[in-house]
Design a protein that fits this description.
alpha/beta, Quinone Oxidoreductase, Chain A, domain 1, five-stranded antiparallel sheet, 14 strands, 25% strand, binds zinc ion
């Protein structure tokens, strides 16, 4: 009997989306699982901006051909030797990367910043496929009642938004929060989290056509500005006081955005930068 195959979206070259091709490839085999590895039948996978950065050739650790997709949810179909926390049939989701568990950052609980671990779609095959293998420390159990489609984006997209709004930003009830990059995946979730905390949200977008979508997500005010010069508008919307917290989701390299973020804060209000690491 030949080796089993599976369908997967394979990237052979960096570049545009035409480089992602649906193919039959060898499926990972249960009998080949190594220490602490878990075989997962993929049910849902998020498509993240990180995937676009990777496809464009901007992540040096990616080896081609590659299967992208790090926001994975599915069911455990086999476990390798030494697996302690998962059994066949468990519903699981990836927690973005497989951290080493040994380095200083891991020991301090900052596992998403681990430099020694491996990332789906870079060093190891990702979830744009029917099956994927992960070491168990890269997985979390998904409670019943949470759809796997929703669970797939909990760690990377929603986790980043929670980290930036609550852990780093310390957003409080009745504060006014300005969110740049508000129409992206992290931004849309940051809006909802800030509203759940009870804050007033000013959402900044460079695309005026996204205004309705941002209001729908819960933004109290939308500042649509292609030039990202939003400091004046933010001051006007806060009666000259400035905002309490800025969640800078466009990333520190966006100079006009960072500059405006600093100018629209109330005195001593924090600015938080958020790129891809939660
Ligand atoms: Zn992601
Ligand atoms: Zn580590």
């Amino acid at each position: 009997m030949g080796q089993k195959t599976m369908r997967a979206v394979v990237m052979h070259e960096f570049g545009g989306p035409e480089n992602l091709r649906l193919e039959e490839v060898p499926a990972p085999e249960a009998s080949a699982l190594r220490q602490r590895e878990v075989l997962i039948k993929v049910r849902a996978v998020g498509v993240c901006y990180h995937d676009i950065i990777n496809r464009s050739g901007n992540l040096p650790r990616t080896k081609l051909p590659s299967i992208l997709g790090h926001e994975i949810a599915g069911e455990v179909v086999a476990i390798g030797p030494g697996v302690q926390d998962f059994r066949v049939g468990d519903r699981v989701a990836t927690i973005q990367r497989v951290h080493c568990g040994r380095c200083d950052l891991c020991r301090r609980g900052r596992t998403t910043l681990c430099k020694e671990g491996v990332f789906f779609g870079e060093e190891i095959p990702g979830g744009y496929a029917e099956y994927v293998v992960s070491e168990e420390q890269g997985l979390a159990r998904v409670p019943h009642g949470i759809a796997l489609e929703e669970a797939s984006i909990c760690a990377c997209t929603i986790g980043t938004a929670i980290h930036v709004a609550r852990t780093r930003g310390g957003v409080q009830l009745d504060e006014t929060v300005l969110i740049t990059g508000a129409s992206g995946g992290v931004g849309l979730h940051a809006i909802q989290i800030c509203r759940l905390i009870g804050a007033r949200v000013l959402a900044v977008t460079s695309s005026p056509q996204k205004e309705a979508r941002l209001k729908e997500a819960g933004a109290d005010e939308v500042i649509a500005t292609p030039s990202l010069k939003f400091a004046e508008a933010a001051r006007r919307l806060t009666a000259g006081r400035g905002v309490d917290v800025v969640l800078e989701i466009t990333g520190a390299r966006s100079v006009p955005s960072s500059h405006a973020s600093c100018r629209c804060r109330r005195r001593r209000g924090p600015t938080n930068s958020c790129t891809t690491a939660p």
